[in-house]
Specification:
Blueprint lengths: L2 E2 L3 E11 L3 H9 L1 H7 L9 E4 L5 E8 L3 E6 L8 E10 L2 E11 L2 H22 L4
Antiparallel strand pairs: 1-2, 2-7, 3-4, 4-5, 5-6, 6-7
Helix pairs in contact: 2-3
């Protein structure tokens, strides 16, 4: 992934967690602990606006429990919105969590967000596995 005509700069990161079923992974991602890690604060995954304690805000646009959530997201308060999608996919050995972000400003922001989401998914691994 890189730059597209319709979505601008974009990035994607995936991690597979062995021994975790998609239903359990979704429940943990949607929990207050899970959203605090990947979204930046405890947020109910329901369509509509959300605001984080640090001043970032966005809108949850689509929620398909057990499958995916699509929302607008800011890297820092006041930054332009990007579109973020988080998916839970069954994998042969467990569950894959995939993050896709689009409408990034440029290649530099793409590189920053790739590193950010890799760190986020690594931080989520113990939560998804059922420990913390």
């Amino acid at each position: 992934m890189g730059r597209t005509r319709d979505a601008g700069w974009q990035c994607g990161v995936r991690r597979t967690v062995a021994g975790v079923d998609p239903t359990g992974a979704w429940a943990r991602l949607a929990s207050a602990e899970g959203t605090a890690i990947w979204l930046g604060g405890p947020v109910a995954l329901e369509p509509g606006p959300y605001a984080l304690a640090d001043g970032r805000e966005g809108e949850i646009r689509v929620v398909r429990p057990g499958s995916h959530v699509r929302l607008t997201w800011q890297a820092a308060p006041g930054d332009p919105d990007t579109t973020l999608q988080l998916r839970v996919l069954p994998a042969r050995t467990g569950t894959t969590v995939a993050v896709h972000q689009e409408r990034l400003a440029d290649a530099e922001q793409r590189a920053q967000m790739l590193a950010h989401w890799e760190g986020v998914l690594d931080a989520l691994r113990p939560v998804l596995a059922g420990g913390a």
